[in-house]
Structure formats: structure tokens, C-alpha cells
Amino acid sequence: MALPDEAASMSVMYKEDGAMARILLVDDEPNIRLFYSAALADEGHEVIEASSWAEALRFLEAEPLDLVVLDIRLGSQSGLELLQRIASHPARVPVIILTAY
Length: 101
Prior knowledge:
Elements: H1 4-13, E1 22-26, H2 30-42, E2 46-50, H3 53-62, E3 67-71, E4 73-74, E5 77-78, H4 79-87, E6 95-98
């Protein structure tokens, strides 16, 4: 029996047609992006990487996305401020926040 939280997390993993998710990974650290990108791609997801606010916003506007994985700190920029921008976007893409702090 799946718990509600499990069912919600599974809906992000698979699209309605059964395809894997298209995920935007936003982190300014190349090694962190490489690690998460490889892990998600190994599971069959399509991963788009962004190293900055500007890149992330360009992808958000241009690409249909199923999920954003966002670092809370992006160099001198705040991931939380970017989260507010993503939350106000009409696509209403779910976001997972990462932090090493």
C-alpha cells in the first residue's frame, strides 16, 4: 500500500505517458551537478544543467520541465529568490531544494 507522500513523489518520477521526468538541475558547483546529473540520468531521466540564475530562467522559459532541483546557494545569488521566481511561473513546476549547509 503506497502512502500519500510516496504516491506524490512517484508522480514526479513518471509523466502521464510513463516516460521519465525532464529535470532542470541548478547548482553553481560543477562536481555537484555532475554527481546529481549522473545519478538521475542513470535512472533514465533527462537532465538539463544550469549553473546560474540566468541559465535556469532561460531553460524554464524555453523547455517543458517536470521538476527543478535547486541549490539553496548559487554563488552570490540566492536559490530561495530563484525559487520565488519559479513558483510564480505559469508552468507550476515542482522544486526540490538542496543544501550543503
